[in-house]
Amino acid sequence: MPDGRRDADGRVLLGHGSGGRLYRDLVHDVFLRHFDNPVLARLDDAAALAASGRVALTTDAHVVQPLVFAGGDIGRLAVAGTVNDLATAAARPLGLAAAFVIEEGFELARLDEVCASMAATAAEAPVAIVTGDTKVVQRGAADGLFITTTGLGEIVVDHEVSPAAVAPGDVLLISGTLGDHALAVLAARGDFNLSLDVRSDCAPLWRLVEAALAAGGAGVHFMRDPTRGGLATVLAELADQAGLGVEVDEEALPVSPAVRSACELLGYDPLALANEGKMLFAVAPDAADAVLEALRGRPEGARAACIGTVVEGHRGRVALRTAFGTRRVVDMPVGELLPRIC
Amino acid sequence: MPDGRRDADGRVLLGHGSGGRLYRDLVHDVFLRHFDNPVLARLDDAAALAASGRVALTTDAHVVQPLVFAGGDIGRLAVAGTVNDLATAAARPLGLAAAFVIEEGFELARLDEVCASMAATAAEAPVAIVTGDTKVVQRGAADGLFITTTGLGEIVVDHEVSPAAVAPGDVLLISGTLGDHALAVLAARGDFNLSLDVRSDCAPLWRLVEAALAAGGAGVHFMRDPTRGGLATVLAELADQAGLGVEVDEEALPVSPAVRSACELLGYDPLALANEGKMLFAVAPDAADAVLEALRGRPEGARAACIGTVVEGHRGRVALRTAFGTRRVVDMPVGELLPRIC
Lengths: 342, 342
What we know:
The structure is a homodimer.
Chain A: H1 21-35, H2 38-41, E1 47-62, E2 68-69, E3 72-73, H3 74-88, E4 91-103, H4 108-124, E5 129-137, E6 145-155, E7 171-174, H5 180-189, H6 206-216, E8 220-224, H7 230-242, E9 245-249, H8 257-266, E10 280-283, H9 285-296, E11 305-311, E12 318-321, E13 327-330
Parallel strand pairs in A: 4-5, 9-12
Antiparallel strand pairs in A: 1-6, 2-3, 4-6, 7-10, 7-11, 8-10, 9-11, 12-13
């Protein structure tokens, strides 16, 4: 960015959050440069978009620590997380809003990198960042950078995609391996002295979901991305909200060798670990093969697997069939294993 | 909230941000209780809404300090700020998304009060809070509570409402007194030992804007709420973006006696102070009287005034005609006088 537009140290000042001239400079030099599109460029207080029919709205605050980890950063996460929440509603992203809370003294060069990552991820989704806001707080009043992204999407199906649409016999598909994001962030924290060969799966999944819907049509009954709380939480929510039972094969769960051995060493359950580029699908039995094939046809779904079924019995509960032929009940994690994972 | 659902001290724990069971409890006991509506109650990752035609999307992070001040609090601010940004686009609010970043140890009772305030302000707007997110960070990693609200609205007019629609001769109307919000927040900080009789103007303005549009129709050319940076910034933006001159009468600016004397004592310019319940309108001359009357017919517009005009000359600049008959150029404030005012 032009030298005259930043302070001598290249750091964010309180004045960058003022709404005055420094603020306009930040908007032009960083945000508009990376997120360039005609809607944002108008710099109106609200972005005008065309929409018709049913739309979806979703928001997520991102407070991940550290800001950069193998396979991603807070910028990629902020875009992917919101696109994926729209995707769970079968909603094609129409536009994203991004709100930044920045600690005074944060390096402008790091903000620039985060915005470049957001722009690249948005292009991949694809979606444009059409409006935003920035607030700067004093040193010590925030931890570097928080980003809240909100997504507006257009729902592209006529059928209900929700726990209420799930029926006994539905097949459960997961789009890939479990736990990669959580372990990549933990490794980046340096909390344990393992050199883990794990990269976050953080990725926008609208293209994957679009392919699944094209293959499965109204047979796609439910989608949810297993982020905080992991697949265990999403399965427990599904069983609870659908009022049905869920049965999962432990051996069918895709887990990478590196994640599996790290979990064994550290005592983590891959089912409870956060993912940022995975989607769980509940699909009618006659559509399951086609959807699985469609998922595997996309790079982000190459390791998709059928992991279980929805059943009439043990309503509201999730049962895991272990490799030893026993069963255990999977419950939602209660507290916080891994804070600030997203 | 039920005693068993909070920890012994009634404080937010890291686990409340986990996505697991404590998170669900917080959602049910606080957010759903206050924001109750059928869309939110589904607890889907994305809220489904009906929209048609042109919609508006806007986002604002709120980091005001202190959280409570005369006339409002962070909850009222978070709802009003976003509703007002939608209103600038002539957009009727369809739904709000709210994302909370909470510091570990924050009192649940205070969170409860903030949510009650958000719910009351949303009812006043009127709009529903249809989706949300909560993250909890460790003690010291945030300053109590930040709230990012994003609004989706339906644009109710066919004509362009933007600086490009503004023409020479347009009349500038402000919906009420200047500077009340900024001074109320400063007073609440106790930074100066004045007992100021000032209350924040913080209020949702959709009803006011709706009345102005009903009265002025396509004669309403431009609306913007003078928040951070104050009216000086909004006028400078208007002159810049419209490529026209702006002339304002200093004597016509509505300023309450308390704000005026505080500004004289403290050396602040009411033009540069933030407002949270005011709207600037640029209106065609033949619609100005009707719009002014409509504004004054609403309680939040009782002190509306005609403050100046848009002119052909001195393009891109704002001139203030002082009480002494002289003129001075009004510029956008450069740095930050008052951090964390919203």
